[in-house]
Design brief:
This protein has helices spanning 4-19, 54-57, 190-203, 259-265; strands spanning 23-29, 35-44, 49-52, 64-68, 74-82, 87-92, 112-117, 125-139, 145-152, 164-166, 172-181, 184-189, 209-210, 213-222, 225-235, 247-251, 254-255, 274-281, 284-291, 293-294. By secondary structure, the protein is mostly beta strands. It has three domains: 4-92, Thrombin, subunit H, CATH 2.40.10; 112-203, Trypsin-like serine proteases (Thrombin, subunit H, Beta Barrel); 209-294, Roll (Pdz3 Domain). It has a six-stranded antiparallel β-barrel with strand order 1-2-3-6-5-4. The longest helix has 16 residues, at 4-19. It is globular and about 60 Å long.
């Protein structure tokens, strides 16, 4: 008689076996010809691209070594890096591996997940856990704060960075990026991958617009219920119609509920445009026109 535990174990093993050929180990050298470290990645798009973390490859110079699981090493070219989201994309001639699919639905707190990569140089490793937190802030090794991160208790060590965090169907939930402790680890969500990676492939870099704000999340009463809204803390430009204390409701066609919504609204296409911005001011909905400039 096959037990439920055996069924569960077989399903996990089959999922890993299917995903593993679409993962790679990445290594390279700096401009001074010393080791630039190593990390992990996974196949994206038409099978010739590899997604990884920016911090894995940002010190590497020239072509990098890309070793698919169970296959000979290939040479990869770094074609785009975005430090702000810790994402990067490589083009690898001759890779021709099946790409992993992004999960279209948002992750759920408590659902199973698996991290695949090369922790501590141990290639083709897998670790099981759950999604233990959503929309987390995490401090990047370079010192800046990363927003909207997934938290997992799946083991993520040095070398796991850039590898996929998969759901129980083998779909990508996020990109493993860093750990804070033995059971507190983080991944960049696929929502950012969907936004950033195609632009990196097309342009090689990310350009963002700015309307000169700093913001924070605040609880406020709306329609008799407490809601978390994004509130303007300060305004950089004196001529801006926006005011500290305004609650952002909408920028263009994007409803603002969190920091990532602002980032999505202020993309490359918004640079140089006059944007329609709706704010909640003194309990009233106010429509304003705000000029967007390129963020430095």
């Amino acid at each position: 008689m096959v037990t439920p535990l055996e069924v569960f174990s077989d399903a996990l093993a089959q999922m890993v076996a299917k995903a593993l050929p679409s993962t790679v180990t990445i290594s390279g050298e700096t401009e001074s010809l010393v080791s630039g470290g190593s990390g992990s990645g996974w196949v994206f798009g038409d099978g010739s691209y590899v997604v990884t973390n920016a911090h894995v490859v940002q010190q590497m110079f020239g072509l990098v070594k890309v070793k698919p699981a169970g296959a000979p090493s290939l040479k990869g070219e770094i074609i785009g890096i975005d430090r702000e989201t810790d994402l990067a994309i490589l083009h690898v001639v001759g890779l021709n591996k099946p790409s992993l699919s992004l999960r279209p639905e948002p992750p759920r707190l408590g659902e199973l997940c698996m991290a695949i990569g090369s922790p501590l140089g141990l290639r083709e490793s897998a670790s099981l856990g759950i999604i233990s937190g959503l929309s987390r802030q995490s401090k990047h090794p370079d010192g800046f704060i990363m927003e909207e991160m997934l938290q997992t208790d799946a083991s993520i060590n040095a070398g796991n960075s850039g590898g996929p965090l998969l759901d129980a169907r083998g779909l990508v939930l996020g990109v493993n990026t860093m750990g804070k402790g033995e059971t507190v680890n983080f991944a960049v969500p696929t929502e950012m991958v969907e936004k950033i990676i195609p632009e990196l492939i097309q342009y090689g870099s990310i350009k963002r617009a700015s309307i000169g704000l700093s913001v924070s999340s605040q609880w406020t009463e709306q329609d008799g219920q407490l809601r978390s809204l994004v509130q303007i803390r300060s305004v950089k430009h004196k001529q801006s119609p926006l005011r500290p204390g305004d609650f952002l409701v909408k920028i263009g066609t994007t409803t603002i509920r969190r920091w990532l919504d602002i980032k999505n609204a202020l993309d490359r296409d918004a640079i140089g445009r006059t944007l329609q911005v709706w704010v909640l001011r003194d309990g009233a909905l106010v429509n304003l026109e705000v000029n967007a400039t390129q963020r430095c």
